């Protein structure tokens, strides 16, 4: 379970440091992601937070951009979806997302071995990585156990 209070505190601190408000839209988007057990697309988020008026995708994308910048959420490029993250990552640290193709659950971990491998590959090509993320699709332990029965 993630610490939703810690994530919101990080977002509020980031907003204050930039001199911008932590808007109700940003708060609602973060709350939806913090309560979800799987990554959500911007349009799924918009559907969740639409109440008396329709929330447009562009409003959600603006909030998502801010929350990514604040380090409160991650984007899964392969699925164009987002999920909350309650811990900070080190500078230059490679983050590995393990995505279950059965249930959609995502687990994340940092890997020094992956970081070294990516740095080595980048060095041989003269590339200077800024942020490293790896997505691995497979089967989570829960789904694997269900198939073993």
Structural class: alpha+beta
Would you report the number of β strands? 5
Find the CATH superfamily of the largest domain. Answer: Winged helix-like DNA-binding domain superfamily/Winged helix DNA-binding domain
- The outline comes out as globular
- The N- to C-terminal Cα distance equals 27 Å
Largest sheet: 3 strands, mixed
- Per CATH, which architecture of the largest domain? Orthogonal Bundle
Q: What portion of the residues fall into strands of 2 or more residues?
A: 15-25%
Strand order of the largest sheet: 4-3-5
What would you say this structure looks like, in words?
- With 149 residues, the chain is an alpha+beta fold.
- It has two domains: 4-84, Winged helix-like DNA-binding domain superfamily/Winged helix DNA-binding domain (Arc Repressor Mutant, subunit A, Orthogonal Bundle); 95-148, 2-Layer Sandwich (Dna Ligase, domain 1), CATH 3.30.1490.190.
- It has six helices and five strands, in the order ααααββββαβα.
- It has a three-stranded mixed β-sheet with strand order 4-3-5. The protein has a two-stranded antiparallel sheet with strand order 1-2.
- The longest helix has 15 residues, at 4-18.
